[in-house]
Amino acid sequence: MSELSLHLPKSLYEQLRELAQEEGISVNQFVMLAVAEKIATISTIEYLENRAKRGSREKFLEILNKAPDVEPDESDRL
């Protein structure tokens, strides 16, 4: 495990401490989870951007045209 020294403004640290306490976890666990969530978000955005580059409107419309033209089931209606 790696160690990280972090300096926060007192007001931000107090909010962090209170939220961690409300969640029933340590400040360290809270920060670790927050960092993990941010990394996952950025990774997901990058994945979707790269995936979108591989797509094409023509292929999308080709697949969409294969779908039957029927009314949706009752449970699928808005």
Structural features, described:
The chain has 78 residues and is mostly helical. The chain has three helices and no strands. The longest helix has 28 residues, at 27-54. The mean pLDDT is 95.
Structural class: mainly alpha
- How many helices? The count is 3
The quaternary organization reads as single chain
Rg, please? 23 Å
Q: What's the end-to-end separation, in Å?
A: 50 Å
Order of helices and strands: HHH
Uncertain runs with pLDDT below 50, 5 residues or more? none
Shape: elongated
What do the pLDDT scores average to? 95
Taking the sheet with the most strands, its summary is:
none
Q: What helical percentage do the residues reach?
A: 55-70%
Q: Tell me how many strands there are.
A: 0
Strand content: under 5%
Write the SSE topology.
Blueprint: H1 10-23, H2 27-54, H3 57-66
Question: In brief, what are we looking at here?
Answer:
The protein has 78 residues and is mainly alpha-helical. The chain has helices at residues 10-23, 27-54, 57-66.
Task: Identify the notable features of this structure and list them briefly.
78 residues; mainly alpha; 0% strand; elongated
